[in-house]
Description:
The chain is of the alpha+beta class. The chain has helices spanning about 20-25, 105-115, 115-145, 145-155, 170-180, 180-195, 210-215, and strands spanning about 25-30, 35-40, 45-50, 55-60, 65-70, 75-80, 90-95, 100-105, 165, 200, 205.
Amino acid sequence: xxxxxxxxxxxxxxxxxxxxxxxxxxxxxxxxxxxxxxxxxxxxxxxxxxxxxxxxxxxxxxxxxxxxxxxxxxxxxxxxxxxxxxxxxxxxxxxxxxxxxxxxxxxxxxxxxxxxxxxxxxxxxxxxxxxxxxxxxxxxxxxxxxxxxxxxxxxxxxxxxxxxxxxxxxxxxxxxxxxxxxxxxxxxxxxxxxxxxxxxxxxxxxxxxxxxxxxxxxxxx
Length: 221
């Protein structure tokens, strides 16, 4: 079944026990950092499952700016627009690290949907919850302060861990995901560190006080 880290914001992952269906239906492909997997307006003909690494999903504005929507890692699926015939990619996806994917033509995946109810339900949930995720992202973009945006991101990334949790995103990556500048994100993180909510280390952030971060969002949930 699909694994979700929290109720309001969805980090959709396919259970590893379902990976073999994608392996049977698809082809493993390798990409290196900055490689383009597909571009906005390309024909949508494949669904992708991430086996290793991270990719960035973004849109290009008319002025040429890149707006990051998500950074995806192992177990995540992207390319859902391929579910619709004669559709085009609404986003561009590039590799952030060395990435190993399975690329599936849907015609090859369909036979396994009748074989596995769990696989079918997972993909249906994926499409439904992606809409919920985008709705949540829009809400944060227009109604959250900069402190609330960063606090929400930290909590979303560590929702399932009751202990102090480590986040391996860079300040630049966080900035692109929450819609703030890197300088602003760094200022907010430094403020959180002074309050002892987090601990900042080289290329990682350790969340130390989820309760206080949650209090910043008490009127948002």
